[in-house]
Every structure is written in structure tokens, then in C-alpha cells.
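User: Show me a protein chain along with its predicted structure.
Assistant: Here is one chain, sequence first, then C-alpha cells.
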Amino acid sequence: MAVKAKKVSKKKKIVKKKAVRKSAKKKSLQRVSSEVRFCFVDGTECHDLLSLSETICHADNDIFKHHVRDDNNDFANWVEFVFNEAKLARKLRKSKDKNKHVVEILRFIIDDLK
């Protein structure tokens, strides 16, 4: 007498915890409201970290220097208080160089998306 094997279908389980982590990880690409956007001295506005890095990259040195001074770093303040990213803000405060600001922001975005 032959025994027939039953096929067992395996359904993929969707775990809610993973979905929450994924959306939290994409914090670096989060777009903020107009009330808390970053406004450059020339009127350019940024609503997320990617646009901030792009705008810093293309900004004139005088515009960058207006926002990054010995006594204050507007970019670091915005990152810390709007995005609640103290670690990135500390890295930005350590530098007065435009290219280093761009690199640190892009590194943060890349690490956040991993």
C-alpha cells in the first residue's frame, strides 16, 4: 500500500516590527513641513537632508559662510532640532568646510538606508 504525501503550503509571514523599522530607517529622507524647513540666506528652501546636501554643494562660499560661523552652525542646529540627529549635528559642528558638510550628510543618508 502506497502512502501519499500531502503538500504543505508555506505562507510568508509579514512581521509588523520589520515594517516599522524600515520606515524609521528612512528618516534621512523624511520631508519636513514648511514650518520647519531650512531657509538659506538667498531664499533657497530645503525640506530634507538630501536637498540640504545638494544645496550646500552648489551654494556660493559666502552663503555657506553666512550659515557656518565660529559661534554658530545653522545646518547643525537644523539637523539636531528638526531631525533629532545629535550625532550628525556634532560632526557638522566640527567642520567649517563646505565639502565636508556635504560628505557627512550623504554618509548619514547612506548609512541610514542600509
